[in-house]
Amino acid sequence: MNYFNYNKGTLYSEGVAIKDIASENATPFYCYSSDAFISNINKLKKAFNEISPKICYSTKSNSNLSILKLLNKEGAGADVVSVGELKKSLLAGINPSEIVFSGVGKTEEEIEFAISNKIFQINAESVSELHTINKIAKSLNIRQQVSIRINPDIIGDTHKNISTGGLGDKFGIPFSDVKDLFFNNSSFADIEISGIAFHIGSQIKTIEPFTKVFKKTSELIKEVNRDRQIIKFLDIGGGFGVDYENNTQEFPLNEYVDLIKKFFDVKALKIILEPGRYISWNAGILVTKVLYIKIHGNKKFIITDCGMNDFMRPALYEGFHKIIPLIEIQSTEKISTDVVGPICETTDKLISIDEFYDVKEGDLLAVLNTGAYGSSMSSNYNVRPLIDEVLISKDTYRIVRKRQTFEESILQET
Ligand code: LLP
């Protein structure tokens, strides 16, 4: 489903022409569609209906407060990986009982904040972290529910930079060490270790790697729960892949749900999901202006005002994001073209392509499918400001994050 479409040659989302937003605000900016977020979360809710999982939206994919509020209204909780994400989720009104906290390097202060705010679950990623959680829970006299994030040593079919389930990756506790933690847990008497969590990577397009993890995990759960139900929660992470080339949410959700039902007793186990990209990817575009065009021999450079500080995915993961003009252009030019940004890095490139629209200096472009891991990964590199984010809802839009001023960007420096 496409939430940004041409209407008589002008790119629209819902009832708003994107060019009108661009004429009222400086480029570059992120532009989101409420409808897209709402449809995506509801698509997930529908597919998982039978299992009625806790859907904890992975806030790292897009943590704008207004988006968190919007998704919370649709019933989403939050998966957070820092006290910052946790505070934002609470500010957005998400109930602590709907929040899970993952991450390999939680500080004592972060754990203390999480426990004293009575969040649903902490996913522990090392034995040392378990000791820290236990110590803090004891001092606060709160019996925190903790899940063990396992490292199943299974590699998802994805880019190596976003694979997290192999033993060579820093995430989780090695599978072979996990069973013991459920039985010999006298050192963790002040917490409730009653769940398993995993997340084998992001942008996983097929079911196969999940089949392997489910099999391994279900065997472990059976063993641990043989005499009594110790494991009550199963957090299966996020990772559902999407198709950036063809604009489709290709992950086979129904097959995935069948697989969960095949391997796990979903009546006895509460399932938790941590989807990020699937909810936010096609809900956003990045609007940018063509500053200059130049030719180097056989190569054309289209230089835009958005840089890798605004959008990291192409530079970090060779991420493919289609670029289209805000006002439709029929003619294209067959020449090796790089659409690049202003940052002083060779990898500051949005796309390399053999044929591109015959754009002119001053034209406005939309970088598609940038709702996930776009704004949330942006930075001030090259002393550039964090940019506007706008959210469309039906026939109107509002600014949900204002562009930083230069003064704001150096506020903490002395
Ligand atoms: N849960 C945990 C513990 C995670 O680490 C992640 C993502 C998710 C859930 C959500 O995964 P998703 O459903 O979005 O695939 N910046 C990269 C992606 C990094 C993902 C990090 N962890 C990118 O732009 O492709």
Question: Which helices and strands, and how do they pair?
Answer:
Blueprint lengths: L4 E3 L2 E4 L2 E2 H7 L4 E5 H14 L6 E5 L6 H9 L3 E4 L2 H9 L7 E3 L6 H9 L4 E4 L2 H14 L4 E7 L21 E2 H9 L8 E6 L10 H17 L8 E3 L17 H11 L6 E4 L3 H4 L3 E13 L2 E6 L8 H5 L5 E3 L6 E9 L8 E9 L6 E4 L20 E6 L2 E6 L4 H4 L5
Parallel strand pairs: 4-20, 5-6, 5-13, 6-7, 7-8, 8-9, 9-10, 9-11, 11-12, 12-13, 15-17
Antiparallel strand pairs: 1-2, 2-3, 4-14, 14-15, 14-19, 16-19, 17-18, 20-21
Helix pairs in contact: 5-6, 8-9
The structure holds ligand LLP.
The site of ligand LLP has 22 residues, from helix 10 and helix 11.
Features:
eight-stranded parallel beta barrel, binds ligand LLP, TIM Barrel, 21 strands, Lyase, Ornithine Decarboxylase, Chain A, domain 1, 414 residues, 2 domains, 26% strand, alpha/beta, nine-stranded mixed sheet
What does this 3D model show about the protein?
Helix 8 (208-224) runs parallel beside helix 9 (253-263). The chain is built from twelve helices and 21 strands. The protein folds into two domains: 5-32 and 281-409, Lyase, Ornithine Decarboxylase, Chain A, domain 1 (Beta Barrel); 34-278, TIM Barrel (Alpha-Beta Barrel). Strands 4, 14, 15, 16, 17, 18, 19, 20 and 21 form a nine-stranded mixed β-sheet that branches. The mean pLDDT is 96. The longest helix has 17 residues, at 208-224. By secondary structure, it is α/β, with parallel strands linked by helices. The chain has helices at 18-24, 34-47, 65-73, 83-91, 108-116, 127-140, 175-183, 208-224, 253-263, 277-280, 313-317, 406-409; strands at 5-7, 10-13, 16-17, 29-33, 54-58, 77-80, 99-101, 121-124, 145-151, 173-174, 192-197, 233-235, 270-273, 284-296, 299-304, 323-325, 332-340, 349-357, 364-367, 388-393, 396-401. Ligand LLP binds at residues 58, 60-61, 79, 102, 162, 199, 202-203, 237-240, 274-278, 313, 317, 373, 377.
